Amino acid sequence: MKRNKHHSPEIRKQQILLASEIVLLKEGIESFTIDQVVFHAQIAKGTVYKYYKNKDHLFAELAVKSVEMLYQYFRTAVADIESPIQKLQSVIKSCYRFYHDYPQYYGLLNYFERKEVDAVQRGRYQKISFELQSFIEKIIDEGKAMGEISGKVPTQSIDYIIWSGTIGMIQFIESKKELIPDLKVINQEKLIHDFALIITSGLRI
Fold it and tell me: Coiled-coil region(s) at which residues (predicted)?
């Protein structure tokens, strides 16, 4: 394939990111290499390093997209639901669906805990993460206003409990599925459904 040396920096960056997504989805996080990105982007290796200083820099950029994708899953999940409790249940189940549909992107959600991420990328990630958090807390406050959710527990605490519990449940399924035979047989979507019912039942007045 002939390489075009006259693309703008923005087009070059998008070209590199597109190739990075292909490699991520095909090879996964552990097997991801810059050489594979170079192959799929059909550009010189030095061009990649001109815009992204290393693999972690690329992962951080893709992590921003991962949280944007998750946020879209949440919004779609609650679009036709009126009950705040049912909205929260749907959010929990949509988080599992995102993990199931895009496990490689899901694996990048906590990538910004790494120290080498630059300030600009971290700022973009934190902005969309805050929007996602506000989205969930708005549902919780709506439930309190409608009398569906108890006002005894602070909204932020409920948000953190739901978020951490859901992540923990997904991690349990992922890490134990090879060790616990039942997890290979059991309907995992039904398991998440039951988890959502249990965790939201304690929110009712």
Answer: none
Distance CA 33, CA 44 (A): 14
Query: For domain 1-52, is the CATH number 1.10.10.60?
Result: yes
Torsion, Cα 114 71 53 20, to 10 degrees, reads: 120
CATH superfamily of 62-201: Tetracycline Repressor, domain 2 (1.10.357.10)
Tens of pLDDT, residue by residue over 81-101, are 999 999 999 999 999 999 999
Question: Which pTM was predicted?
Answer: 0.85
| C-alpha dihedral sign at 63, 69, 73, 79 | positive
Diameter over CA atoms, the chain: 65
How far is the C-alpha of 150 from the C-alpha of 146, rounded, in Å? 10
